[in-house]
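Help wanted!
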Amino acid sequence: MLNNYNSLAQPLWQNGPAPGEFYKFTGGQMPVQQLPRELTTVGPYGTKHSTAAITTGSSVLGIRYDEGVMLAADTLVSYGSLARYQNIERVFKINKNILLGGSGDFADIQSIKRNIDQKMIEDQCCDDNIEMKPKSLASWMTRVLYNRRSRMNPLYIDVVVGGVDNEGTPYLANVDLRGRSHEDYVVATGFARHLAIPLVREKKPKDRDFTVVEAAELIRTCMEVLYYRDTRNISQYTVGVCSLNGCGVEGPFQVNENWTFAETIKGY
Amino acid sequence: MSTIGTGYDLSASQFSPDGRVFQIDYASKAVEKSGTVIGIRGKDAVVLAVEKIISSKLYEPDAGGRIFTIEKNIGMAVAGLVADGNYVADIARQEAANYRQQFEHAIPLKHLCDRVAGYVHAYTLYSAVRPFGLSIILASWDEVEGPQLYKIEPSGSSFGYFACASGKAKQLAKTEMEKLKTDMKIDDLVKSAGEIIYKVHDDLKDADFRFEMGLVGRVTEGLHLINPPELTEKARNAGDAANKEEDSDNETR
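Answered by r_m:
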């Protein structure tokens, strides 16, 4: 189709608006408002690329403990301010070593997950029983995301990549839409970055890693805080756990909601 | 016995006066020189077994493998020119990936077989290329379709089978397979594969060989595994035992 494009052809009509545009009458008609957060850039053959996210997932939280990692995300995909899809898994098991938690534009998450799944099948076709390590996947994602953003056509996602390597050393990193990545014992996307990370950092023992019990307790607390304070969350969430003992996504769990404190709020 | 196709055998785009395309027949001859390959369909699994003839002690044990994983649940074994086999395996993987990209589902084996057979057939139409010297056996298992087994000839024709064989001892293997029951359970399936390969192997012509096996079924949780440790041991032991029995039969008096 693209090969048949005749760039020398005359336009179908003169002195009128291009398709999709309006006639410009004299008298100052109001120009079509573009949403301020929407940045469109020109693509090939008259197309436009938009950086607006349409259906979005909210926060993802990842915590590293002595034997592995835990990733938690609620099960909501919003359509702007509408809580549209309320039972969506946003934490994925990629292979026996890797978990991926996706937030941001969910179509982009699904798109890159399709590519990642195909990569895992290619791994299997090599017939050497070697599965990709989480650090390698995170590195690959930074390359893809950086190149997309450099072409002004980003995948609008913010992901947490977590897992263990062959010796059982845990790995936890955050990769964002600009191709920026960093590794830490706690990483988060969205609101969890502001609400949950300080909570976890406060509880971190100075001289050792978290235990699995501490990590689970922290996940529970943080998901509760996020539900109360982030307006794009719901009370149902799933948790992915990856260690040498196994890798899988557990849930769905419910936040223990208790709104009775609302009665004590006075004054506004 | 073998007809000489003087003048009509130079390219695949020529028929001979008696209606044969000699290049395809010559491709089949290349297949007949290679080590035997068999595929057997059981109740809940399909096994592919290869008589891999070791031409030099300098090779690593897993070198020159003729069984490939095409998709999570699809395996392929080839008889004939192994270089062609590597190439067609790659084509098959691309076709399976392309199907999965469009439909987010593993390619049904019938569709993969049609695509690969069509590809192999295309190479039999033109004088600029030669046909693939390959006989390709495809196997898969999934929860819905169950076990599937297909074979593609060098001419590009393909059929579904309960059990099939290619290569040196094709006739002998087929005779052995006709004695098998259909819908065998996994243990019998794997043992039969071992027995047949060890039986048809000709000790006088080719001294050293390595038995290799590809298995996909409920027991492997729907994944195609090459030389899964326990079941391959079982097959090899069954093969050895069958051979010893035969040898001891010959040693009477």
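OP: Thanks! One thing I noticed: The helical segments of chain B are 22-32, 82-103, 109-122, 170-178, 186-200, 229-250.
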